[in-house]
Amino acid sequence: MIACFKELGIKPKVDNFQSKLVMQKVTYLLDAMGVKTGFSFSLYIRGTYSPDLTAALYQHKTEVEAQETSEKLSSSELEHVRHLEEVMGGEFRPSIVEIAATYAYLAYYLKMSSNGARIKLRQMKSFYSEADFAVGINRAKELFFHPTEEDLRKLKEEMRTWNLASDEDGKKWA
After folding, report:
1. If exposure means fewest CB atoms within 10 Å of the residue's CB, which of 17, 35, 60, 75 is most exposed?
2. Which residues have CB under 8 Å from 137's CB, separation 6+?
3. For residue 43, is it left (φ>0), alpha (ψ between -120 and 50) or beta?
């Protein structure tokens, strides 16, 4: 994971709560995207959490904080890391990654409906702003929602009325 943190520009501080929170959530997101980290995650107080990851961070604190590693990312892993960085806008705010990782766990790992995951997330994390929820959930969806042809067909049909209305409105102003 050190190579991933380094590639993402994350400067780990193992004794700092916010830094550990970011490392936990980023590791979960990368694992869920297909980067095999070797850590298993479950829901805990602040969302996705791996006790084994925490133990590894403390066990290798010096290397983690100095970002010393001989590990090289495969082209596939690097692609996932870059996609995460792009979706997150290169910024790993604790609130946003916590919301994104928790939503991803609920919606894509536990397979809750989008609305059910959003409601559960709001219950779990009522201390975050609506703006943070919107950003975090949208980032998770951008990472993990891969629409099927049927999803796209339904969306196109749903949007047809809106598009027609927009076209008519545009003609009024032409």
Report:
1. 75
2. 99, 100, 103, 118, 121
3. beta
Confidence (pLDDT) at 151: 79
Q: What is the pLDDT of residues 46-81, one digit of tens each?
A: 999 999 999 999 999 999 999 999 999 999 999 999
Mean pLDDT value across residues 33-53: 95
Instruction: Give me the residue spans of the domains in the chain.
Output: 2-172
Q: What angle do CA 53, 33, 79 make, to 5 degrees?
A: 105
State how far the Cα of 19 lies from the Cα of 24, in Å rounded to an integer: 9
Catalogue the long-range contacts made by 16-22 (C-beta closer than 8 Å, 24 or more residues apart): 18/94, 20/54, 20/57, 21/46, 21/94, 21/97, 21/98, 22/92, 22/94, 22/97
Closest by CA position to 97, among listed 7, 168, 9, 28:
28
Q: How far apart are CA 5 and CA 12, in angstroms?
A: 8
Handedness of CA 88, 145, 73, 27 (dihedral sign): positive
